[in-house]
Amino acid sequence: MLYYFIIGLQAYCLFHAYKNRNSYYWYFIIFFIPILGCIVYLITQVINKKEVSSVASEITNIVNPTKRINTLQKELTFSNTFQNKINLADAYLANKDFENAILQYEKALEGNFKDEPYTLNKLILCYFKTKNYDKVISYSEKINLEKDFKDTIYFYGLALEQKGFSEKAENELLKIDKRYSNYKERLSFSEFYIRNNKKEKAKELLLEIIDELKSMSKENYRKHSSLYNEATKKLNEM
Predict the structure, then answer these.
(1) Which of 20, 41, 82, 116 is the most buried (most CB within 10 A)?
(2) Predicted model pTM
(3) Is the separation of the CB atoms in 186 and 176 below 8 Å?
(4) Which positions ≥6 away from 3 have C-beta within 8 Å?
(5) Closest listed residue to residue 94, CA positions, set 116, 65, 127
């Protein structure tokens, strides 16, 4: 079976090299080094070279994020545009450098872009991570979270709790309590109930999460087993 697979792979690579008029040395590599030669040929000649370049760039960004930040700083110095500010801020955010991300997002919002919702939404995340709950609340109230940024309602709700608006916080957090979704956020919501002496509501929510997870297929349950264990632990501790 493996023999026929190798023959077929060689035939495909040879045909591709002929069709695309690639260099003759590829014929020798494919023919005399069957598996390795075919793999090298497929990676370098068949896969879209732009895609390869893009993947390589992404790998570099992950391995050495500072290099990407330095590049984006130079681009911003050369061209002080809204998009270049956002690109640099996004890189800081990806690197969990929330203070510098905030600085660039705030600069991006100057002038005509002061109400740009997607930038405001990213600022909400950064301010939540730095525990600036006043900013989280003020920016959350400038954009339509329920329509466009439903995930951010979670940060808004927790920020409201931190500032003493527990009832309003509960109303917001209820919006993320959707069946068969948002498990981490809903577990956090159960903790909100416990902190605010609403243990019956916490128990009801935890039982709901546990029942949902138990009804999943074995494969999906395995993916969420840690959440099931966490929910069960919280329930037993009440």
Answers:
(1) 41
(2) 0.71
(3) yes
(4) none
(5) 65
pLDDT tens per residue across span 115-164: 899 999 999 999 999 999 999 999 999 999 988 898 999 999 999 999 99
Burial of 134 (0-12, 13-18, 19+ CB in 10 A): exposed
Considering its fold, how many domains does the chain have in total? 1
Q: In angstroms, rounded to a whole number, what is the distance separating the alpha carbons of residues 178 and 151?
A: 12
Q: Which of 170, 102, 166 is nearest to 135 (CA)?
A: 102
* Cα–Cα distance for residue pair 192/167, rounded to 1 Å: 11
- Pairwise CA distance, residues 113 & 36, whole Å: 52
100 within domain boundaries: no
- Give the range of the structural domain holding residue 201, as residue numbers without chain letter: 178-238
Is pLDDT of 52 > 60? no
Q: Is residue 226 part of a domain?
A: yes
CA 228 – CA 136 distance, rounded (Å) = 30
Tell me if 215 is assigned to some domain.
yes
| pLDDT value of residue 58 | 52
Kind plus residue range of the DSSP H or E element containing 22: none
Cα gap 67→88, rounded to integer Å: 12
CA angle, residues 212, 216, 217, in degrees to nearest 5: 175
pLDDT in tens, 57-90: 554 555 556 778 888 888 889 988 999 999 999 9
d(CA 209, CA 157): 20
